[in-house]
Amino acid sequence: MVPVPLKIHQNDERKCTFREETKLNVDMRIGVHSGNVLSGLLGLRKWQFDIWSRDVTIASRMEQSGRPGCVHVSKATKDLLKDSYIIEPGNGNIRDEYLNKLDMETFFITPFKKQSISKDTLYVPIRAERSPIHPRRTSSFTHSKLQRRRSSTTEVLSSRRRTVLGFSLKQFRQMVSEVNSSMEEAIDAMALSKKDQWLNPEGIHPLLLSFCEGSLELPFLKQKDPLFKYSLLASFFVCLTLTTMSALTKDILSLFWISSSTVFLFIIISITLSWTSGIQKYVQKSTKASYFSLLKQSSTRVILRTFVFILISTLFMATAIIGLEDCLTTPNVSSHSNNQTVPVDMPISCQKPWYFTCCAMLCMVSVSVFLRIHFFIKLLINGTLLAAFSCYTYKYDLFQKSLLQDWNNMPAGVDQFWCLLVTLYTLHLLDRQVEYVGRLDYLWKRKLKNEQEEARTMGLVNRTLLQNILPVHVAQYYLTKESMHMDLDLYHEEYSSVAVMFASIPNYMDFYSESLLNDEGRKCLQVLHEIICDFDKLLYEPPFLKLEKIKTIGSTYMAAAGLQPGRNSSRTSYESFGPEEDGTQNVLVLTKFAMTIMDALRELNSQSWQQFHLRIGIAMGPVLAGVVGASKPQYDIWGDTVNIASRMDSTGVTGAIQVTERVAEILTEASKYDIKCRGKIYIKGKGWMTTYLVNPSEVTRL
Predict the structure, then answer these.
(1) Strand pairing partners for 1?
(2) What is residue 176's predicted lDDT score, i.e. its pLDDT?
(3) Which of 603, 681, 587 is nearest to 641 (CA)?
(4) Are 523 and 607 in contact (CB under 8 A)?
(5) Which residues contact 686 (CB under 8 A, 6 or more apart)?
(6) For 187, what's the count of Cα atoms within 13 Å in the CB-facing half-sphere?
(7) Each residue of 653-690: pLDDT tens digit?
(8) Is-contact 532 557, C-beta < 8 A?
């Protein structure tokens, strides 16, 4: 990715107040150059946004050849600045061979107010090695001087330890704590009233109660009905009530008892079938499971459920009509409309037409107890029952006799018709409301499921990104509930026996070029990306799972072994991870990884017709690990071991692995490597050191 050129970014100013706040007399050198860059991500693990180009290398050289307390800028940057700075010649080409080769003219920008630097000034030496595109930097510091000032700076530093990552996690936890109040507000805003149903339908047709999105209709109807067996149980009690009412009239009407017995028997069978999932737990294991799975389909298949419902409702309706038919077919019933005398041998139930009305009302109720059946089907069945009952009351004179006038002088047939009509209307309103709430609940569940899926996906993406920035145990620390109420200050860990590796491709600079042929360097960068990806893939193999990739700096690959959580950590909760592994194993695993990436690079060379070579340096010893940075927090390691490992690489031999004397002793004891003493070489910051070379072509593989 190529950023959009800006002519104002060179005027960025930062007021450094660190010395005033911490009372530490530190200083720094800065190098600035303006030009073109390529930006993006490389590799599969430990993603970090970075920039590459020759101009980046020039900026690095500007910093290396700079002066503490000044900003070392190139002529390209100076020409873009306003005349509001104190500028003096920098002569960077005299101090740096690379700048001299490019004949670069440089300048120093000094502060307006010179600050005195005492003899106790704490300089932070920053070594930048030659890298094809981007410099590598390692740092060290004078611990004793920092220790003397620690008591006076703790309070100030604690305010700086709040990183952007910490604040983001704190905001996330605050959002989690406010979930309940958000849910209450959402519940209050639910469209449950009739007004909301008609004015704010929310995806449901207000009259037909069908989904506005037709594709949702079939999945909604195919839902399982866990309440179906309870609806059957309610129908059983309705049937029992009808039978009890008939028994209290002391009548034995043959057709009614046959019909009611049929309903009763069918409901008993249906209840037994629908409750098989619960009964199965108490049945011996010898019972075939397939039998029970077949019986449970009554509550899981919509067609079977609907068939059972229609059959039970039809039998209920037939029972109510048959009871009325028994009275109408009685031989002794008088059919003269003017005769007000009722025959003595008429059944008692026939002398009380309200009995049949109550039976019809109970039948309507038995239809409405099936909550998940479509309300149009229930309306059709109850409407059919009302129509049939009305035909009987008007066709025959049983309900038209003056003796059977109601208390309000309205004919009994008309009064009972209106009573059933009101019952039908009331049950229909309830059915509509149940249907509406059920469909609304279905929409909310779908919406919640989609949001949960999006949140789960986003959480997985965030976790993946965080674990590609930080090690797994550090990312877990920031994400777990254990740190919900902890201060998110400086996170650090101390290790005593960590093996550190720097692997660089010294001839990549010769390969890299910015021309139209390679798309201004993009194709060269693509090759580097493939190399780093091949290295990263090896970290997923079982022998290298405990290795930790630290970062890539240009064409240099940095990794370490032995960074297991809990080693004198800033969080005691990780102490349960057990004792620290022996440094011997760390060295052996990291050396094997170094050999493996050499093989991987040779394989890539054979496929791409390239001649890349690795130069590797390994050292072992104590390190300090932690998370630093505000806007872009990064896990890194520091210490003398890191500096020495970097020097082992920069002063090493192409195609070989240069190691310290301590590492060489461990590899010699393993008797698997061809190790030769290189002799004493000068290591910046350490003086003369005896180093050893491991020949990768003479290795007995682990």
Answers:
(1) none
(2) 58
(3) 587
(4) no
(5) 643, 644, 647
(6) 6
(7) 999 999 999 999 999 888 778 889 999 999 888 889 99
(8) yes
Asked if residue 40 lies in contact with residue 528, where contact means CB atoms within 8 angstroms, the answer is: no
Residues in the chain: 702
Q: What does the H/E/C string look like for 187-238?
A: HHCCCCCHHHHHHCCCCECCCCCCECCHHHHHHHHCCCCCCHHHHHHHHHHH
| The amino acid at 166 | G
Contact 505, 517 (CB under 8 A): no
The CA-CA-CA angle for residues 149, 155, 156, to 5°, reads 80
User: How is residue 343 annotated by DSSP?
Assistant: P
pLDDT computed for residue 152 by the predictor:
44
Cβ-Cβ contacts under 8 Å for 127 (sequence gap 6 or more): 137, 138, 139, 643, 646, 684, 685
Query: What is the distance between the terminal CA atoms of the chain, rounded to a whole angstrom?
Result: 41
Q: Among candidates 591, 648, 580, 572, which has minimal Cα distance to 615?
A: 648
User: Residues near 276 by Cβ (< 8 Å), separated by ≥ 6?
Assistant: 292, 295, 296
> Which residues share a beta bridge with 504?
556, 615
Q: How far apart are CA 60 and CA 82, in angstroms?
A: 23
Region of 700 (left: φ > 0; alpha: ψ -120 to 50; beta: rest) is: beta
Q: What is the pTM of this model?
A: 0.61
Residue 136 burial (CB count, 10 A): 22
Task: Count Cβ atoms within 10 A of the Cβ of residue 531 and give its class: 0-12 exposed, 13-18 middle, 19 or more buried.
Answer: buried
| pLDDT single digits (tens) 330-363 | 554 444 444 444 444 555 666 667 777 888 898 8
C-alpha distances in Å from residue 256, one per residue of 129, 319, 332, 345, 417:
102, 6, 19, 18, 22
- Tokens found for residue 561: 């072994």
Beta carbons within 8 Å of 42's beta carbon, 6+ residues apart? 50, 525, 528, 529, 532, 552
Residue in 633, 654, 693, 662 with CA at minimum distance from that of residue 49: 633
Residue 241 has what pLDDT?
85
Grouping H, G, I as helix, E, B as strand and the rest as coil, residue 560 is: strand
| Longest CA span, the chain | 136
Q: Please tell me the distance from the alpha carbon of residue 139 to that of residue 157, in angstroms, as a whole number.
A: 20
* Three-class SS state of 31: strand
Rounded to 10 degrees, the C-alpha dihedral 562/565/568/574 comes to -160
Tell me the sheet residues that pair with 106: 74
How far is residue 110 from each of residues 30, 71, 107, 302, measured CA to CA in Å? 11, 7, 10, 82
Tens-place pLDDT, residues 511-551: 888 878 778 788 888 889 999 999 999 999 998 988 999 99
Cβ-based neighbours of 527, under 8 Å, separated by 6 or more:
511, 608, 610
CA distance 87 to 108: 6
DSSP string, 480-518: SGGGTTS----EEEEEEEEEEEEEE-TTHHHH---STTT
Q: Could you give the residue numbers annotated as active site? A: 647, 684
DSSP output for 566-624? TSS-SSGGGGGG-SPPPHHHHHHHHHHHHHHHHHHHHHHHHHHT-----EEEEEEEEEE
Burial class (CB in 10 A: 0-12, 13-18, 19+), 457: exposed
Which tokens belong to 72?
Answer: 């070392």
- Quote the CA–CA distance of 603 and 457 in Å, as a whole number: 36
Confidence tier at 424 by pLDDT (50, 70, 90): very high
